[in-house]
Structure to design on (180 residues):
């Protein structure tokens, strides 16, 4: 179980007691401000605990939704425009307007980790929006996987998401041409 420094203070009472727990092996410091009651904690758990207001997007979301087998070198996290910049070399941050940030946020289980991620429908819209920024083979792999699961997608939700963008009709046209 991961705890923040404040949660450790609430649980153990003081900084001295926290250090005492670390010394006895009952608590482990994963990184600054993040502690674990277990020796091993996955990096995605630490990232999600350290940045609880973020959502996995882009290459990270494609991987967690099993749309690609390419493991990203970074964690791609979306935040609201008003949030502070994340200065973590493991993270690539994208800022989103408040209107589109909340659309499609879901929580999935991946290797016993709970991850906030955009749903597959929202990620299909994101794929179409930024298709020119990714290599063609990567794009084709993801599109082929979307074609395989097209019967599972809710295209009513896809239309709702596309309507939030100024080029929504064009996005829906591309989705119909590529996926359906």
């Amino acid at each position: 179980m991961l705890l923040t420094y404040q949660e450790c203070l609430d649980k153990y009472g003081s900084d001295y007691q926290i250090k005492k727990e670390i010394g006895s092996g009952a608590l482990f410091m994963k990184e600054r401000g993040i502690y674990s009651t277990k020796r091993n904690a996955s990096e995605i758990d630490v990232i999600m605990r350290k940045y609880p207001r973020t959502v996995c997007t882009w290459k990270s979301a494609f991987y967690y939704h099993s749309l690609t087998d390419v493991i990203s070198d970074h964690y791609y996290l979306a935040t609201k425009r008003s949030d502070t910049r994340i200065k973590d070399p493991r993270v690539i941050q994208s800022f989103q307007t408040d209107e589109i940030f909340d659309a499609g946020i879901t929580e999935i289980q991946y290797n016993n980790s709970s991850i906030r991620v955009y749903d597959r429908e929202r990620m299909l819209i994101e794929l179409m929006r930024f298709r020119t920024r990714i290599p063609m083979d990567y794009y084709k792999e993801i599109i082929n996987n979307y074609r395989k699961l097209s019967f599972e997608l809710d295209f009513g939700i896809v239309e709702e998401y596309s309507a939030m963008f100024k080029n929504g009709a064009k996005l829906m046209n591309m989705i119909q041409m590529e996926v359906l």
Notes: Residues 2-41 form one domain. The two ends are 43 Å apart (CA to CA). The first helix runs from residue 5 to 12. The mean pLDDT is 95.
